[in-house]
Design a protein that fits this description.
The complex is a heterodimer of chains A (305) and B (283). By secondary structure, chain A is mainly α. Chain A contains twelve helices and two strands; from the N terminus they run αααααβααααβααα. Chain A has one domain (20-300). Chain A has a two-stranded antiparallel ribbon. In chain A, helix 1 crosses helix 10 (222-235), helix 2 packs across helix 9 (186-212) and helix 10 packs across helix 11 (240-256). The radius of gyration of chain A is 19 Å and the shape is globular. Chain B has helices at residues 2-28, 35-51, 56-84, 89-111, 135-157, 159-169, 171-176, 181-206, 213-228, 233-250, 259-273; strands at 126-128, 131-133. Helices cover 75% and strands 2% of the residues of chain B. In chain B, helix 1 (2-28) packs parallel to helix 5 (135-157) and helix 1 (2-28) packs antiparallel against helix 8 (181-206). In chain B, a hairpin with a 2-residue loop joins strand 1 (126-128) and strand 2 (131-133). Chain B has 283 residues and is mainly alpha-helical. Chain B has one domain: Orthogonal Bundle (ABC transporter involved in vitamin B12 uptake, BtuC). The radius of gyration of chain B is 18 Å and the shape is globular. Chain B has a two-stranded antiparallel ribbon. Classes of the chains: A mainly alpha (305), B mainly alpha (283). The A-B interface holds A 39, 85-86, 89-93, 95-97, 99-101, 103-104, 107-108, 110-111, 223, 226, 229, 233, 269-270, 272-274, 276-277, 279-284, 287-288, 291, 302-305 and B 30-31, 78, 81-82, 87-91, 93-95, 97-106, 108-109, 112-113, 219, 222, 226, 255, 257-258, 260-261, 264-265, 267-268, 271-272, 275.
Amino acid sequence: MIEYVDTLLPYITTILLISSIYAIFSLGLNLEWGFTGIINFGHVAFLAIGAYTTVMFNMSGFPLFLSVIAGIVLSGFFGLLLGIPTLRLREDYLAIVTIGFSEVLRFILLNEQWLTRGPFGIHGFERPLQDVIPYQHYNTFLLILYLVILAIIYLSLERLVRSPWGRVLKSIREDEAVPSALGKNVFWYRLQSLMIGSAIAGLAGAMLAFYISYIDPNTFKPIETFHAWIIIILGGTASNKGTIVGALVFCTFLSVTQFTNRFLPFTAHQMGAFRMIVIGLLLMLLMMYKPEGIFGKKEELALSD
Amino acid sequence: MQLVINGLVIGSIIAITAIGLSMIYKTLNFVNFAHGDFVAFAAYIALFANTSGMHLASAFLVAIIATIALGIFIEKVVWLPMRRKNASRTTLIIISIGFALVLRNILIFIWGGSTRNYDIPVRRGFEFFGATITSNQVLVIFAAFILVFALHYLLSRTKIGKSMRALSDNVDLARISGIDVDRVILWTWVIGLGLAAAGGVLYGLVTAIRPDMGWYLLLPMFAAVILGGIGNPYGTIAGGIVIGLSQELSTAILPTEYKFAVSFVVMALVLLLKPEGIFGGAK
């Protein structure tokens, strides 16, 4: 029994850690897509910017806390840079441009080796309180820290979307003409939503870097963006609670299916592909038959033209 | 000169694969993110037929038929029901991404993630104004020409082709003038995916076959579509050639890894400055 607990507990800790990172990453996208109706297919770019900025600032001598802040600020700033020229575009153009942005960023990270060490990645960087916390308890510490961060982000987002500001966002999602007729600067609100969402993704990037203690450009492939989309759609678009539950369900699925090849006659890479087939089918079926997800409300879907 | 030839070869492949993307985009009013994976699917079917002993020419036909069959199947079980439900553009885009994941990973599941090649003899290239051209490259350009002329004949001379153009010009107008919209949409898939499949097999001839080849073709194809004006097949062809050339010529001054970024920058500029396309596209 004791042995069982000894192996199970670290495993659960791992799932919860990954879930909390994905939850925060997806909450950022949920603000953009769920509450404002912005199609961002390049969300992973801000995860990358947050992770790389934090690690590189810290390695060039900045204290860890300031480096994380730098990562968050810079992600938000890039959100602004991306948003200014593109947020006036039609939704399908925006989808193409944002996904292209994230891929171009990944190519830059891969090729500008003087800056990022390219495909070799960066490891051996400082993690929060790594000298104070004993190694065997480090993940437990990280989990507590991440759950606190998740709670803070969740509560602030809930306050934000219930505020007058959040109501303007929702009205933009429903029909842009109405808030602009009331004198609201729709473009500026959309820009703010993209900046905040990107900054949150930047924070998730720093958290991801600390957890896996290694980053390389191929950690940030477009599939990560779509993982966040699936999490949001699964949990329920425009529901922050749903996004957190979606992250937990999704990460548990990812993790548990790593062991199912004991029961299925697949090789490791076939299992990986099989998992992605299931994820793709899930995305299709959800969009076809239950686009409002588990906790979402049908009337809050930003899908009507 | 070498870069120009490489650019023309890649450009003609982008052109013929992107025509389907463009026509579907306009007719069904959504971006099919799975289009590139149809291209890859065709290359793998040709690879499978070829390595199990079939001549590449017949493998080519098998691949086209299989890809069209898959496309019709998806039209019947996914796109047609979704159109009946009046699904929004965003819904369709997300579904197409889901399908792209499914299709790409089926390829990885069956054939693995590594690079593959057709079972054909490797021939030496010949010299042409100081550049080397392989016979496969000549074949690609030649085949692309034939396909483009066939398409032109179809669109300008046959009833179905004219209906397709009418539909991609204005769906409502086409409907009230008595065109059977669902049937023409089916034909648009057949022609578009047939061309995409042909492009996929040809692409496998000049480069290698990889499960993510469709993904890396997708952004250049989008660029060609937007450059040429959505729904305009002739504009798309011109756009494809321009993108192919600019990708290859960029390698003279930039690292080759940035080829992909070049098409993105060209596309972003067109979207921001002249979203209706350069080549007299539709509004």
